[in-house]
From TrEMBL:
Residues 9-69 form the HTH tetR-type domain. PANTHER family: HTH-TYPE TRANSCRIPTIONAL REGULATOR RUTR (PTHR30055), HTH-TYPE TRANSCRIPTIONAL REGULATOR UIDR (PTHR30055:SF223). It holds the Pfam family TetR_C_41. Keywords: DNA-binding. This is TetR/AcrR family transcriptional regulator. InterPro entries: Homeodomain-like_sf, HTH-type_TetR-like_transc_reg, HTH_TetR, Rv0078-like_C. Residues 32-51 bind DNA.
């Protein structure tokens, strides 16, 4: 039984690895299921068994990359001494990742086109909850204004996501990125409590 479970996990990992490569190089529509299963050393049956179909495989790849993006952004934020600055750094890091070809193509272009609204993805829900908890702490500490924490988290998360989507779809992503980060930071700073 354990050997069978391990084989299934290995097959799943091989398919996700092959799909990441194929989707990054050829895009979702250009990636052939036969080519990516052959690249993984598996059959279409293994793909169907593990993911249902090509769309299910894309969802698993997007989940992996988007979760990795969140962890990387969190690690960047963790370097800040101040929790509000950490929140800004995380958002800016997420936005900057829109310049990475794999992120751009798979998560920000093909993901929404095939899987629908990114704000409904499980990985985005995890980020949203982490942001809400941070905002609740910042409210309790008196750093930011008293506001509905979920509303603020949704708006900040949405701003970072939409900035990344804008960069990915732009003909000049390098030009758009600094504008997007500056606007994101200004919007988020509006939550700060200013003592008069």
């Amino acid at each position: 039984m354990n050997k069978r479970i391990q084989n299934m996990a290995d097959n799943r990992a091989k398919l996700i690895t092959a799909a990441r490569k194929a989707f990054a190089e050829k895009g979702y529509t250009g990636a052939s299921m036969d080519d990516l299963t052959a690249d993984a050393g598996l059959t279409r049956g293994a793909l169907y068994h593990n993911f249902g179909d090509k769309r299910g495989l894309l969802a698993a790849v997007v989940e992996q990359i988007d979760s990795d993006m969140a962890m990387r952004a969190h690690a960047i934020g963790a370097k800040e001494q101040d929790e509000f600055q950490a929140l800004l750094a995380e958002g800016a890091a997420y936005i900057r990742m829109a310049l990475e070809p794999e992120v751009q193509r798979i998560v920000l272009l093909d993901g929404p086109a095939v899987l629908g609204d990114p704000s409904q993805w499980p990985s985005q829900s995890s980020c949203l909850q982490a942001t809400r908890i941070t905002i609740e702490r910042l409210i309790a500490q008196g750093v930011i204004k008293t506001v509905d924490a979920e509303a603020a988290a949704r708006l900040l998360s949405g701003a970072a996501l939409n900035a990344a989507l804008w960069i990915a779809a732009s003909p000049n992503p390098q030009d758009v990125m600094p504008k997007a980060i500056e606007a994101f930071k200004l919007l988020a700073s509006g939550l700060l409590k200013h003592d008069s």
